[in-house]
Amino acid sequence: MSISIHRSVVSAFDENCWYLVNTRNNQGFFIDPGENFPELVQQVEGTQTEPVAIINTHAHLDHIGAVSQLQHRYDIPFYLDSRDEYLLELYPEHSAMFGVQAHATPHNSETLDAVSHLDLAGINIEVLHTPGHTPGGVSFLVGNHLFTGDTLFKDSVGRVDLTGGDYESLRHSILSILLALDDDTIVHPGHGEETTIGAERRHNPFIRDWLSQG
Q1: 16/84 Cα distance (integer angstroms)
Q2: pLDDT tens for each residue of 137-163
Q3: Which of 9, 24, 89, 197 has the greatest number of beta carbons closer than 10 A?
Q4: Per-residue confidence at 1, pLDDT binned at 50, 70, 90?
């Protein structure tokens, strides 16, 4: 299987939207399309591909801003863990709070609850349930590429001071689920630059502190 990975840095929050394409059939799917709908459409047209789905790591406003527009344009399903549905309902309120434009509120058409694998565009996706940043937070593993949303960043971890955040859940998700992956696993976070599991095990100050505590 041959996959190309495209990143668009979108919204006032510099959020990473990922578009994965199976180069054998020219089909793809979005991960966390947070904003900049016209740019994402240009990306699809520029790659001459067919989007078949949207999958989200969580439902904070900076990760869902272009979801409804993409759903409408391409008539594709939106996958989200139902434990984050309350954040969809809060989308207009949160947008006003942060002074950003709200678009139509997206509604998930497919749930990731109890789902361990997806097959989209002929690409096998392992769904890792990694709550903590939000109750329904998930990460997606495609080969040795891990899409962590706001659970794990280069040299940092997701914040837990927003509605639904839980420190112990985040700690467990990272130590027990993400760090169980191979060190050469490439981490594609929801913000900032890419890293690897091995680099975070060695250098991430939060992880090093947790590991030292035993």
Answers
A1: 19
A2: 999 999 999 999 999 999 999 999 998
A3: 197
A4: low
Where in the chain are the domains?
A: 3-212
Convert 87-123 to b/e letters by CB count within 10 Å (16 or more is b): bbebbeebbeeeebeebeebebeeebeeeeebebbeb
Nearest to 94 by CA among 140, 134, 139, 151: 134
Range list of H helices, the chain:
37-47, 61-64, 67-74, 85-89, 91-98, 167-172, 197-203, 205-212
Q: What whole-number distance in Å separates Cα of residue 182 and Cα of residue 197?
A: 7
Question: What average pLDDT score do residues 20-48 get?
Answer: 96
Token duo for residue 146: 């891990």
pLDDT of residue 23: 96
pLDDT of residue 163: 86
* Strand boundaries in the chain, DSSP class E: 3-10, 15-22, 27-31, 50-55, 78-80, 110-111, 117-120, 123-129, 138-142, 145-149, 152-153, 156-157, 186-189, 195-196
Contact of 32 with 73, CB cutoff 8 Å: no
